[in-house]
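Subject: sequence -> structure tokens, single chain

Hey, anyone have a minute? Need the predicted structure for the following. Not urgent.
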Amino acid sequence: MDDLPGRTIVKVAWIGNALFALTAVPVALGAESVEGFAVGVALVAFGLSMVVWVWALGAAFVRSANGDDIAVASLFLTAGEVPRSVRRHLFGALLVCLLIAAATAAAEPFGVLVPMLPLGLIGLWGARHGTYPVRTR
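Reply:
Had a minute. Here:
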């Protein structure tokens, strides 16, 4: 993973999943003593995701103002040239996060907010490291 562009963004996505799983799964298995901590982790992850989303959209706006032709699909890595390993890691982290949220939602409902973080990190990677054509209009 050390040779990936934007590897810090990828690492944050996986670290976020690990923290989410370490708190939400025990609550789902009946460990009520960590429920407050799990809610706190979910809310901090959601708050962090809001910062990441603003950062991603702001960076995309700046790049667009400087002449890059950025579309929503390309910002969120569904179009354009993106290294396969980056796409695999970031969408894998999103999928894992969605699975954790779905599996633990009944016991820890605030966890449904957490997938906003890896989704925002996908956009941030696209805004920071994506390759876009020059706007022609």
